[in-house]
Amino acid sequence: MRRRSDMTFAPEEYERRLSELRQRMAERGLDAVIITDPENLMYLTDYQTTGYSFFQALIVPLETDSVMITRALEESNVIARTWLEHSRAYPDSGDAILELVSTLRDLRLGDAQVGYERNSYYFPAYQQDRFHDAFGEGLVDCFGIVEEGRIRKSPAEIEVMQLAAYAGEAGMAAGLRAAMAGATENDVAAAITSAMFRAGGEFPAVVPYVASGPRTMIGHSTWEGRMIRPGEHVFLEVGGCYRRYHTAMMRTAVNGALSESMHSAQELMKQTLAELRSLMKPGVTVSEIAELTRSRIESNDVGAQLVTRAGYSIGIAFPPSWDEGYIISLLEGDERPLEEGMTFHLLPWMWGVDGNKTVGISDTVHVTADGCESFFTLPEDFTVHESSARSFRASAVVAPSF
């Protein structure tokens, strides 16, 4: 395996990942697997493109060389970014599924036990139906076989996630400074993305969430030109990204004096995060983390709820989501133990403070040999802007008044 100039990790990292995948294949009696999930493709080969809406697949035989099936335009990514020596490209006028079947037969896998990711977003049902019809017997669902390796990050991956954290933290700090009365949500989003990219970050799998005042009660809402008014708060969630690895955090800005209820919410979230970081270590279960989060947040006296899971695994991601929650979500009843190298976005956030405010303080951590560590250093306290308003240049777009 040789290293190409644009690869994220040394060849030894990919050799380990591929070797461990083949061990799992052998345990399941698989002669080959077909990988179509963009995150899994990058994990195994460093292949990435924004053109993943077109069919692409990596064939990994148990013993012989892997082969990439991809659109002709995207084959340059195989050549420039990955260690792969073999690829087969199809033109826009071609048939990707027939190319896949033809390649499997050329690899003498026509009568083999072949695994494929049945639940992959980018291997839709109609393509799977055509694949079954053309290939015949011997197909086995192997969804999750790559994720078994992804869930525990190596030291090299942790280093890359730290670079993502630096970028995300720079963006969040800039957004908190900009989140003042008189600014628009767009101003805040512009500050976040500019600082994040200038700090070395790349485009994240999800845009920053910027919501002010009553719009914070709308799930996953983000900037729409609304002007922030005196006395309002601003909810921010930012995912920093470097080489498709992500870390994420929530923070809150307040314009005007911090009310008693908002201070109570702030302190409860900070306390919960501190308790979570103290609890988390190898052997502690997912359920214990989820139960602690929910019991602490729902003990509040300000009318808030924890309306979601308590967190999720995080790492490699492409749009439309930065989380690995389909691998592990922090939910009650999941008795899986934490292991060294696992990484989580912890979410002790609060929906409905005073009945009309969503606020958040969150953290991304990695499990160590005897505990856990945060990727961040940014203060957790709400950012309070005492002045009531700030002057901004007039915009060509009039901010809506809802």
From TrEMBL:
The Creatinase N-terminal domain extends over: 17-151
Q: GO: which molecular function terms?
A: hydrolase activity
Coiled coil (UniProt feature) = none
Q: What is its EC number?
A: 3.5.4.44
Source taxon at top rank: Bacteria
Please state every residue range assigned to the domain named Peptidase M24.
Answer: 160-369
* Gene3D superfamilies found in the cross-reference section: Creatinase/methionine aminopeptidase superfamily (3.90.230.10), Creatinase/prolidase N-terminal domain (3.40.350.10)
Keywords of this protein's UniProt record, alphabetized?
Answer: Hydrolase
Q: What is this protein called?
A: Ectoine hydrolase
